[in-house]
Amino acid sequence: MKCLHLSDLHLGRRLREADLEEDQNYLLNEIFNIAVEKRVDAVLIAGDVYDRSVPTVGAVRMFDEFLTRLSQASIPVYVISGNHDSAERLGFADRLLDEKGVHLACVFDGQLVRYPCRDDFGPLTIWAMPFLKPASVRRFYPEESIESYTDAVAVVLKKANPDFSQRNVLIAHQFVTAVGWDTQRCESETLSLGTLDNVDASVFDGFDYVALGHVHSAQRVGRDTIRYCGAPFKYSVDEARGEKGVLLVELGEKGQVDVEKIPLHFLRDVRRVKGTLEQILSGAQPSEDYLHVVLTDETPLIDAAARVRAVYPNLVKLEFSARHGQTDVSDRAQEMLHKTPLELFGDFYRQVHGSDLSDEETAVMKQVFEEVRE
């Protein structure tokens, strides 16, 4: 059985001021062509289909067309919801779409959705687990001790009771980590992916392949068959150096899994260039790529952004490596990344009132943040 593993489409997302609808349409068309060319038996979409819970009209239209083309090509597609999606909206008309080979497992009702399949090597089950939080699992299993994300996922998998003597594929959207394994994250993910919401990879022991979404860099976690395919596009300037693609997963007999990364090509790439303004513009060929430009000029420049845009109209970020005596805003941003929400609120309170939070106020706000996080 051949599966095409993709995730984190983030349809409707912008790259700073740039509208990416045309770029995303281009990528979806390329992914569809790969699915047809490779004659896949299933497309697995591991969450974060949309960039926000209320997606744009253009985003919904793109995904509708993508699913329709897959259905017309008789390629089954299995979709779960991610933390960016509204599970109820994404799962609309799921029972009707099941008949067309479009399987939406978006709203967690206490049980994993299972899809029995069969190929030349016998039965194979695809399990679909939408994004889970401990609170959503405790609601269905109050008798279980669920203190962490790992506990929550472990309980759900235990209740599903897969038959591991046969082949099982799991689609999940969680921050999965493994002991002794460094999960690669870009800077833009450090705020949303912490250390308290991680799921230990050991809970997936027994599954022949785990198709993950949530992290934008393609990588394996702990073993070759637990994989993030990564986002199909460079959704932040700090992803500029990354190579994007989708994963072709071929399952043979029990214990035999081959994974191939298929690179994707962009209508417009996201690139980072560094040098003096003269170096960057000298001999430059006009390009519509999305550019992050770092200028190393020692003296202040007038209208630097306008001059760069004359050659690179899709300039998304311009910064100076030399500070010219000014406070570097990026330094402050980096400092904020390493502060907790309570510390950030304390800074805000101090700026407004000119004094620190009292011990009592700190305790109240700590409880508020814990309730919000939960």
Task: Note the main attributes of this structure.
single chain, 374 residues, alpha/beta, six-stranded mixed β-sheet, 19 strands
Layout of SSEs?
Layout lengths: L1 E5 L7 E2 L2 E2 L1 H17 L4 E5 L10 H16 L4 E4 L6 H4 L3 H5 L3 E4 L7 E7 L2 E8 L4 H5 L10 H12 L6 E7 L1 E3 L20 E3 L8 E5 L5 E3 L1 E6 L16 E7 L5 E7 L6 E6 L1 H5 L8 E6 L8 H6 L5 E6 L8 H9 L3 H13 L5 H15 L1
Parallel strand pairs: 1-4, 4-5, 5-6, 8-9, 9-12, 10-11, 12-14, 17-18, 18-19
Antiparallel strand pairs: 1-15, 2-3, 7-8, 13-14, 15-16
Helix pairs in contact: 1-2
Query: Ranges with pLDDT <50 over ≥5 residues?
Result: none
Task: Enumerate the strands of the largest sheet in spatial order, edge to edge or round the barrel.
Answer: 6-5-4-1-15-16
- Indicate the multimeric state: single chain
**What share of residues are in beta strands?**
25-35%
Rg estimate, integer Å: 23 Å
What is the count of β-strands? 19
What is the string of SSEs from the N terminus onward?
EEEHEHEHHEEEHHEEEEEEEEEHEHEHHH
* Overall pLDDT metric: 90
Class per helix and strand makeup: alpha/beta
Termini Cα gap: 39 Å
Largest sheet: 6 strands, mixed
Helix content: 25-40%
What would the principal axes of the Cα set say about the shape? globular
Discrete helix count:
11
